[in-house]
Each structure stands twice: as C-alpha cells, then as structure tokens.
Amino acid sequence: MAMDLYHIWCDLKPGTSDLDFTESVREYLGSLVESERIASFRLSRRKLGLGPVQLGEFHVCIEIRDLAQLDDAFREVSSRAGPIEPLHAAVNQLATNLTFALYRDFPDDHRKHGEERF
C-alpha cells in the first residue's frame, strides 16, 4: 500500500539531551500510532555530519495512509487538549529550526500505468 510521508527536520535547543528528545518523540508519536492517527514513524539522526545543514540534525518521518489521516492527526494535536498536549509540548520545547515536507510513495496506487505526463 502506498503511503504519504510527512517529514520533519530539526535541531535540538541548546542544552537538550539527545536521549530526552528521543524519548519524547517516541512517547508523542507512539501515542498517535496507538490511536491510529498515524500509521508509523521513524526517528533518525544525521551521521558523520553528512547532509544539508539547513535540514537539521534530526529527521522524523511519519507515515500516513492518506491526507485524511494526517488531517485527523493535526486536528487531535491542534486541539491543545487531552492527553496528547503534554506529549506534543514535551517535543516542541526541545526542538528548534524545524523544516517540514510532505511526500508520497510513487507511483500512487491510483496512477494509471503506461501514462506518462511531464
């Protein structure tokens, strides 16, 4: 099944423990997986300094079935209420220089094969 991929790159605020950040991301996004608001996530860190500086040292890739699922996750988090808010705040207070992108697996499941468009 093709997925949409929501990417987040960031750096840590000065004095932030990398392991505290990792734990906060896992608790926050893990709760969204448990509630089926996202399909899965992955946290990675730049290795050997390789990569564009403007993208930040840490990368979070969130997999979602479709934009409806992403919208549902945004709706839950943007409510700033319930059990998700302290988990979201715990990540936000540790990260800086955030950059976001939305990609999709390609070709899409609904793409008609054999048709090329430029």
Please sum up the structure shown:
The protein has 3 helices and 4 strands; from the N terminus they run E-H-E-E-H-H-E. The chain is an alpha+beta fold and 118 residues long. Helix 1 packs antiparallel against helix 3.
Description:
With 118 residues, the chain is of the alpha+beta class. It has a single domain (4-95), classed as Alpha-Beta Plaits, CATH 3.30.70. It is 32% helix and 27% strand. It has helices at residues 18-34, 67-78, 84-92, and strands at residues 4-12, 40-45, 58-64, 95-104. A four-stranded antiparallel β-sheet has the order 2-3-1-4. It starts with a strand and ends in a 14-residue tail after the last strand. The mean pLDDT is 93.
Which topology does CATH recognise? Alpha-Beta Plaits
Distance between the termini: 24 Å
**Averaged pLDDT:** 93
Tell me the name of the CATH class: Alpha Beta
Annotate the secondary structure layout.
Elements lengths: L3 E9 L5 H17 L5 E6 L12 E7 L2 H12 L5 H9 L2 E10 L14
Antiparallel strand pairs: 1-3, 1-4, 2-3
